[in-house]
Amino acid sequence: MKKILVTGGAGFIGSHVLRLFVNKYPEYHIFNLDALTYAGNLENLKDIQDAPNYTFLKADITNAEQIDELFGKHQFDRVIHLAAESHVDRSITDPMAFVKTNVMGTVNLLTAAKEHWKDINGKLFYHVSTDEVYGSLGEEGLFTETTAYDPNSPYSASKASSDHFVRSYGETYKLPYVISNCSNNYGPNHFPEKLIPLFINNIINNKSLPVYGDGNYTRDWLFVKDHAAAIDLVFHKGSNNETYNIGGFNEWKNIDLVKLLCQQMDQKLGRNEGESEKLITYVKDRPGHDLRYAIDATKLNKELGWKPSVTFEEGLSKTIDWYLENEEWLKNVTSGSYQQYYNKQYN
User: The pTM is what?
Assistant: First the structure.
């Protein structure tokens, strides 16, 4: 039975990857390593928590000794590394936290893998990264796997650094790896500090919808379940020491996205058309705000046959429905009560 370590598995993307792997691959034993910080929530995984091929490990990737001990004890065959600090605004106020987790944490995992994988046959270190490492695009063009790195925020700089460390361990120590760089994810279970879940929660509670600058910042949106499916493909069929860009082919200006979200929310909540749009407020722009991101996922499509399963409109509707059906989850996660419960349980 192959032993697969997934870091950050209690987080947003990680929980969807874990659920997919646990259910789809009973021949694997999946280990979920998570520190259960504010964005890590085992409530996301209640449906698989008793699966015979699943084990939760409460640990922090910034603790090198702890990570080394876990590699020695469990003899992981492969790693899917998702654990990261990921919110740009938080990186602006506390960049060192991002260096510690995203850079040092990744190096700790790489070092443990290097030390314990004496036979690299069948081994793989899969590092999940972001399109933000490429910097900002103008009105035209797309990020490809060969686009030069040009990070503009402490978050993207920390992820760029971790990408480079993964490649350096591949070159220097012959550690087998793959890297994927994804566009903005959205979908169920997303911690409500990011744009879509935050605005859904604010609309429910008739709070303002703060839009940065003029709202014309453009992002490429990827439904999280499509991302999990892409990770599955890259993990099993991707070529070693390669990079794959994962994008939803869904470019939206922030203000257009927010207006679409308002329209769908009004319909689903039975409100008058345009009622939620009145909550939009324009706020001072954040420092280093990249104008546009857009992923060219042609390589992934041509080599592995991946493409998005839903349009943005469809995915957004599914996402809103999930939050409206899980208001208790939303209430508890915003209050931190789930984190308090699980941290007590696993301390």
Answer: 0.95
